[in-house]
Structure to design on (82 residues):
């Protein structure tokens, strides 16, 4: 049986409270983005990708408890950050 120390257990709880939302018109279309997706998934359990700004905004507004890390690439940056 593997024992999880209190520090490791607490770190996992904290990790679970974060969601990465990645908004990019080419999020699922390039090899570079595929590699970035894989790297991010190794760090966090939940990663949601969008290539449509309206859909991402609707999703973000539906989140109530978790903290969101928003990655915005390309032309969406100027639109969504305003």
């Amino acid at each position: 049986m593997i024992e999880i120390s209190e520090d490791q257990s607490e770190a996992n709880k904290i990790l679970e409270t974060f969601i990465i939302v990645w908004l990019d018109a080419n999020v699922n279309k390039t090899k570079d983005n595929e590699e970035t997706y894989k790297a991010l998934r190794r760090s966090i359990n939940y990663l949601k990708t969008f290539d449509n700004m309206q859909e991402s905004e609707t999703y973000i507004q539906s989140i109530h408890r978790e903290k969101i890390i928003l990655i915005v690439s390309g032309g969406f940056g100027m639109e969504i950050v305003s």
